Amino acid sequence: MNTLVKGITSADTGAKSLKTGVFSSGMIAAAIAVTVLVNLVADQLPLSVSSIDMTSNHLYSLTDDTVQFLKNMQEDVTIYVYGKKSTLDETISRTLSKYESESSHIKVEYKDPVKYPNFASDYTSDTLQENSLIVVGEKRNKVISYEDMYETQIDYNTYSQQTTGYDGEGRITSALDYVTAAEMPVVYRITGHDEQELDSSFRTAMEKANLTVEDLNLMDQDKVPEDADAIMILAPLSDFSTDDAQKVKDYMAAGGKAIVVTTYTDQDMTNFKSILDEYGVSVTKGILAETDNGHYYQNPFYLIPEVKSNTYTSDFADSKYVFAPYAQGLTVSENDALSVTQMLVTSENAVVKDDPQNMTSYESEDGDETGQFTLGAKVEKTADDTTSTLFVFSSENLFTDESSQMVGGSNLQLFTRVINDLSEEQSSVSIPVKKYTQESITVPQNQFVFLGLTTVILLPVLLLTAGIVIWVRRRRR
Fold it and tell me: Are residues 278 and 260 in contact, defined by beta-carbon separation less than 8 angstroms?
């Protein structure tokens, strides 16, 4: 009897094991089938849907500026890729996929140089590299060379060329803006008073905003040309003549726009300052020193101003710094005719050093003016139903490559936002280069001291104390 029961039990157990095995095998087969199916479906999806951008600088994503531009775009544009789809640079491929997914007005086509050897000659006389782009609109076209979509520099340790940034989005959005724009805005850079030149990355920003920049010596003209969308006065070291200053005032009174950068000089700048006076802006004689170590970097003249959040600074106001060395102080008045948007300000403890060569301390001395000063602002003036716009900044080093690199490109971001506001239609858009390399971190002096004390003294002391406590407890057991 026991033998019979054991046999039945063994049979039942075997049947259950068989069912369990069949069920497990079925589930495994189903899981494999589902995995294959999902991969097949995912393989058919465009890169804009199937890939997630996990890069810290959003290398494979489009910026909000580009997305907004594409939403407003009304004309059909074809982007021709000079090359085969199978050999296209992956980063560019992802970027183009994003553009197509964001706008139904954009179509991407591939032109194999072997099959279409003369295609590029219809748009340029240059010999194009593969992976170059030709952006064609209804009114005009623009060629984007493959090498222009990457930023490179020489590594002098190895004497080899290193890729440091990707400018695909910047170049493509600029080209789309160019081929669809009704007219090309013109910005005149005033010369003849020892003005500053624009550094390369800032010139590139204006180029990508499709702003035509031309030099203008006011001595050669009766007035600012009528086709001027804006003018730039960059850190003049010598004063304007009365006539030159009046020409600028007349242009502004007619609804003009200007970017003005001041600089410290021992020259009398009465006529130049009279232009700023029209907008309630006065300039201190000397250079600002910060006594609040949270607002300078290493040297009290190397200012890290407070960034006021607004249209021009919203991208970085809460997370990045702006570097403004050797700045003058601005005071800006506001009344019924003047509307002021503050961008950059000092702490309330800044000091004006009228004679920086002979000062004995960064702290306030006899005769020094102290308080909070403006370093950058937008002033709109309305008179007789006409509105003019002045962007004024007080550090000649603010819009330079070196200063911008100190703070991870924030200075360039600010400049880009400002120039996007210069054209009459206000449709220009300039996207900064996306860096491959990690930017160095610049922190205010007080944070530098705190981090140094924490890592060099406090943390080692805490670890040593913890070690001693653990050792004593073990000895007592």
Answer: no
- Domain layout of the chain by residue ranges: 64-164, 181-432
CA distance 53 to 18: 47
The C-alpha R_g of the chain, in whole angstroms, comes to 31
**Domain pair 64-164 / 181-432, same fold:** no
CATH number of the domain at 64-164, please? 3.40.30.10
CATH class of the region 181-432? alpha beta
This prediction has a pTM of: 0.70
Mean pLDDT by 10 residues, the chain (477 residues): 51 55 64 67 51 64 92 94 91 93 95 92 89 94 92 74 87 93 90 94 90 94 95 97 97 96 94 97 94 90 93 81 95 91 94 88 88 96 94 96 90 92 68 70 61 76 83 76
